[in-house]
């Protein structure tokens, strides 16, 4: 009897309640997330902006980082240790795998698989307002439309949207916390593996790639702030990893910037890009800046790195105390990590008290 190659079991075997040999022997090799993630793009792209040896190793950069147990609620952080591959081959986006497992085997309408109600719940719950609360209502609505359109074409974005929805519901529904947290980790791990499998970021997938990178970064930051296990320096290490991931987004966005400005994301990209050359006007960080200038423990390069971090920190205070019309008062606070100098990240990574004091100032 000819096999119709449906996933995960062929229709013939399902109909007669027979064990499908095709499923046993081949399905694992064809699922998009069967192969382990060998390299990364977003956080690996951060290597282009962070060449300090301090970024080449981390407790979260091992292969096991993408299969962490769900008990710690930790995002499977991408490794910044390997450089991104940038070939010109267009990544495969046709016949995307859906969370239910089928990839277009039912085009003829001969039979249907049950709808995965959990994934439907997660899909209906997703909103850009959750991952980007600094956006205004009109941009959220536009962003939601773009996400839905791109997620259908790029499964890695679809999986990450479901993952961040599950993470949000794990907080909103504490009685189902463990269930949704497990869903979040599993879906995000698959999303990362599929994104790593793409061979380039080009015109065909640049919008989906930037959306994926942005949502993944916010997801990672949520996990960092929600996970209070371990000591303070463990938290600092996780924060540094999230910053490296955030800086990777800037690299990906820069590579695809011309295409993004011609895409439907143009209004969001223009709105969400802060002016890094704006001069601070407040005095919230004057004492911190004075202490950094006086410390004998930092060399001139490290002092300048701390001053740059303080510069953008003061801009964050300025935006809260005197918001720009049409802008979120907390926008710069969300993107502070993107502008941190490499040397400052290295100081944080080595647990230097001066850098930690600057980071602590953000809590005031």
Automatic annotation (TrEMBL):
Extent of Low complexity compositional bias: 49-67
Presence of keyword Nucleus: yes
Compositionally biased residues, Polar residues: 82-100
Keyword annotations: Nucleus
Keyword check for Ligase: no
Region (Disordered): 49-112
Database matches in InterPro entries: Sterol_Uptake_Regulator, Zn2-C6_fun-type_DNA-bd_sf, Zn2Cys6_DnaBD
Protein name: Zn(2)-C6 fungal-type domain-containing protein
Organism of this sequence: Sporothrix bragantina
Record lineage: Eukaryota, Fungi, Dikarya, Ascomycota, Pezizomycotina
């Amino acid at each position: 009897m000819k096999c119709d190659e449906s996933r995960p079991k062929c229709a013939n075997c399902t109909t007669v309640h027979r064990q499908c040999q095709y499923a046993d022997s081949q399905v694992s090799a064809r699922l998009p997330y069967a192969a382990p993630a060998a390299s990364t793009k977003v956080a690996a792209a951060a290597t282009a902006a962070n060449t300090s040896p301090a970024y080449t190793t981390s407790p979260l950069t091992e292969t096991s980082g993408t299969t962490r147990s769900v008990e710690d609620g930790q995002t499977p952080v991408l490794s910044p240790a390997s450089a991104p591959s940038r070939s010109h081959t267009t990544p495969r986006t046709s016949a995307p795998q859906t969370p239910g497992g089928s990839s277009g085997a039912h085009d003829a309408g001969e039979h249907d698989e049950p709808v995965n109600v959990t994934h439907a719940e997660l899909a209906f719950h997703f909103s850009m307002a959750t991952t980007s609360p600094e956006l205004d209502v009109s941009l959220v609505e536009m962003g939601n439309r773009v996400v839905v359109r791109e997620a259908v074409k790029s499964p890695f974005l679809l999986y990450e949207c479901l993952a961040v929805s599950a993470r949000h519901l794990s907080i909103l529904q504490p009685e189902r916390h463990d269930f949704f947290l497990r869903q979040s980790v599993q879906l995000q791990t698959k999303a990362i593996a599929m994104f790593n499998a793409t061979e380039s970021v080009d015109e065909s997938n640049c919008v989906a790639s930037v959306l994926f990178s942005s949502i993944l970064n916010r997801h990672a930051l949520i996990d960092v702030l929600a996970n209070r296990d371990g000591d303070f320096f463990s938290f600092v290490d996780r924060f540094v990893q999230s910053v490296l991931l955030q800086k990777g987004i800037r690299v990906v966005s820069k590579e695809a910037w011309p295409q993004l400005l011609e895409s439907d994301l143009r209004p969001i990209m223009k709105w969400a890009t802060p002016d890094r050359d704006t001069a601070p006007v407040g005095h919230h960080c004057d004492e911190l800046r004075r202490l950094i200038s006086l410390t004998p423990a930092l060399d001139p390069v490290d002092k300048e790195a701390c001053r740059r971090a303080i510069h953008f920190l003061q801009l964050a205070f300025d935006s809260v105390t005197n918001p720009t019309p049409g802008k979120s008062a907390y926008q710069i606070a969300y993107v502070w990590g993107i502008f941190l100098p490499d040397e400052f990240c290295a100081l944080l990574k080595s647990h230097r008290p001066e850098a930690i004091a600057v980071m602590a100032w953000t809590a005031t």
